[in-house]
Amino acid sequence: MKTLIKSVAVLGLLFSSIAMAHEGIEIESSVPADNAMLMESPSELAVSFSKEVRLIKVVLKNQQGDEVDFDFTPPKEAAAHFSWSLPKLSPAHYQVELIMLGADGHKMKESFSFMVH
């Protein structure tokens, strides 16, 4: 029984240290802002993180799940700020999904949404 308790304690420490490694990376700001309600189509999509990341995928989808092409190409270098020009967006609710790698190489996902009236 003592071996089981020690094993559970070690696994708990391991998983908490993995979670702590990712804890410091979050979206600091975005354009459009999360949950923004816009009266016209935004001209750009931008996101700033609290630390440098390597973006590997950014997807912009409308409420039907259709992807909007805005010529995303994964950057070769890590950075904390990224931006892209957007085509004219139709009135709809949009979701931005980001997949990135932290400095430790772990994959993380973030998302935010906005609405164009």
TrEMBL record:
Protein name: Copper resistance protein CopC
Origin species: Neptunicella marina
Domain of life (superkingdom): Bacteria
InterPro entries hit by this protein: CopC_dom, Cu-Rt/internalin_Ig-like, Ig_E-set
Lineage of the species this protein comes from: Bacteria, Pseudomonadati, Pseudomonadota, Gammaproteobacteria, Alteromonadales
A GO cellular component entry from the record: periplasmic space
Span of domain CopC: 27-116
Pfam family, one: CopC
Gene Ontology terms for molecular function: copper ion binding
Annotated signal peptide: 1-21
Keyword entries, A-Z: Copper, Signal
GO biological process, one term: response to copper ion
